[in-house]
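Hi support team,

I submitted a single chain yesterday and got back a structure, but I'm not sure I'm reading the C-alpha cell output correctly. Could someone confirm the output below corresponds to the sequence I sent? I've pasted both exactly as they appear in my results page.

Thanks,
R.
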Amino acid sequence: MNHDPNDAARTDCTPPATADNPAANPAQETAAPDASAETAQASADEGLHHRRIRSFVTRAGRVSTGQRRALDELGPRFVLPYAPHAPEAADQDASWDAVFGRRAPRVLEIGFGMGASTAEIAALRPEDDFLGVEVHEPGVGALLKLISEQNLTNIRIIQHDAVEVLEQMIAPASLDGVHIFFPDPWHKARHHKRRLIQPKFVQLLVSRMKPGAYLHCATDWQNYAEQMLEVLGAEPTLENTAADYAPRPAYRPVTKFERRGLRLGHGVWDLVFKRRAG
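Hi R., thanks for writing in. Yes, this is the structure output for that exact sequence:
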C-alpha cells in the first residue's frame, strides 16, 4: 500500500515493476495489494540527504471524474498541506490532536496506493488515527472517495514525499505505529540501493516512533523480504516480534491482487518489529 512518484532517473513515467502493477512486472502477476509502497531514488553520498532516498517514483495516472470530485470536495478537509517546520516544536503533537479532533494512537502509512486497505483498516480500528502519505493523485482521490462512502473520520492524507514529512512534520517519539505495505521492490540488483527500507531511512523512521510502537512491513518479493529482515534486524532500537517473518496480522486485509498471487504460488511476507523501550 505505500508509494509514490519521482525518480530523477525515470523519465518514461512507467510504473516500476511492483506487486501492484502486474503489467510492469510480467514475471510476477500479483499486484501489490491495494497499494504499493513506492520507493525511491538516491543521489550521491551515503547520507539520507545525499544518496537521497525518496518514498516514491514518478508514474503517470489519470484522475477519474469521481476522484477529481473527491479531491475538490473532500481534499480541503482531509488532505493536509506539507508544512515544513522543526519537528521538535513543543506544540507539534498538540497540533496533530487538533487535526484529528482528539487524542488517539497515531499510525503513519507510507504509500497507500488506491487506499482500499487503508480504509478497511481505519474502519476496523476506529479508536486509532491514520496519517497516510501518498503522492499519486489518483490514489489520493480514490481514498477520499472511500472516506466519504464509509463515513470515516480517522484518516488524514499528506500528498508529499514521506521522507520529508518524517523529517519536517512528525515529532520524535510520537508515532504508535507505521505501515509500509508492498513498497516498490526495485527487483533488479543494480537498483536495490533505491529501495525504501535502508538503514538510514529506518533510523529516521524509528526516531519518530514511541518506545513500544510497531513497524509493520509487507512485501511479495522474497529478495526484498530478506533485505527487510536483515536491515530491520540490524537496527539496535528495534526487536522482532517473531522468529523471522510474522503471521499476517488480522487487521491487514488480503486484497484481490494478493489473493490471486497466492493462488499462483507467489509468497507474501509480513514483518512486524517494535521499538525497544528505553
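A quick pointer for reading it: The first strand starts at residue 79 and ends at 80. Let us know if anything else looks off.

Best,
Support desk
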